[in-house]
Amino acid sequence: MSTLYVTLNNGVQMPIIGFGVYQIPPADTERAVSEALEVGYRHIDTAAAYQNEEAVGRAITDSAVPREDVFLTTKLWIQSPGEQNARDAFGRSLDRLGVDYVDLYLIHQPFSDVYSFWRAMETIYEEGRARAIGVSNFYPDRLVDLAVNNQVTPAVNQIETHPFFQRWHDTEVMDGLGVQAESWGPFAEGRNNLFTNPDLAAIGAEHGKSVAQVVLRWLVQRNIVVIPKSVRKERMAENFDIFDFALTEDDMAKIATLDQGETAFMDHRTADVAERFNTTKES
User: Fold this and answer.
1) Which of 23, 66, 153, 213 is deepest in the core (most CB within 10 A)?
2) For residue 1, what pLDDT is reported?
3) What is the CATH number of domain 5-278?
């Protein structure tokens, strides 16, 4: 099995399917990442806030896959204000990962002093310690404001995207800016009985594929990068096996009817979410 790539706005190639490690305990992460690399994943997504960067780094170092063949993403958690704090946090991530560069570095949440953080990330990018920089959880207003007021336009915006929250307007804005959309939570963590949804199951039956494969294929056909997570190697392989079929226009239209137009998790535009995240700064 092999993957497809998208080209970011700076020319960097990014695998359209990756392996996410959110909520995988550190004790299980090294094995999971090692198995994902064995399956064929060449894109690993972690974050300082996940507290498993060390295990991700060990798996990559011990793998037979050369470092340059692995697209590695990590993320900056909410810091105290100031460029130096962001640069220090990036250095800690590199140390934990055991690498001298990452392929993509993201601002994890659209809170605190994001403009000084972004200036620090522009410098990190210019130094070659991050091959691309971007953001996560930015709604269109925040994304546009950041893009028009800085030298470097984010290469990626990683946002909640799944059949119940399809983000058509958001991805249209990103396309206009040249920002690559990336989905977190592609399965909505099973909310709304996604895995037994009759429409998704019927589409899967037509193609001989699982509901999970249908969802991932739907995102890929929208040119959205996906980072499914699993701790079971057979499920990792299933999630990766989405390049031998295509959804029809009727399939895509049927999935479009599932959109509820609202988050299944949290709305980053609300006061309570902003307050909650700003109380968990990394000093």
Assistant:
1) 213
2) 52
3) 3.20.20.100
Q: What tokens does 182 get?
A: 């990336």
d(CA 123, CA 268): 27
pTM: 0.96
In the block, residue with structure tokens 């920089």: 133
- Confirm if 137 and 167 have CB atoms less than 8 A apart: no
In a 10 Å sphere around its CB, with 0-12 CB exposed, 13-18 middle and 19+ buried, how is residue 139 labelled? middle
Instruction: Give, to the nearest 10 degrees, the angle between helix 198-207 and helix 211-221.
Output: 90
**Would you please indicate which residues are annotated as catalytic (active-site) residues?**
50
d(CA 283, CA 280): 9
Q: Which helix (H) or strand (E) covers residue 84, if one does?
A: helix 83-97
SS3 percent helix, strand, coil of the chain, rounded to 5, is 45, 15, 40
The Cα 118–Cα 151 span in angstroms is 10
pLDDT digit string, tens, across residues 234-270: 999 999 999 999 999 999 999 999 999 999 999 999 9
Helices and strands: H and E segment counts in the chain? 11, 10
Say how far apart CA 238 and CA 49 lie, in whole Å: 27
Exposed / middle / buried, residue 89 (Cβ in 10 Å: 0-12, 13-18, 19+)? buried
Which residue is it, tokens 């949440």? 109
Cβ(21)–Cβ(63) under 8 Å? no
Q: Residue 283 pLDDT > 90, yes or no? A: no
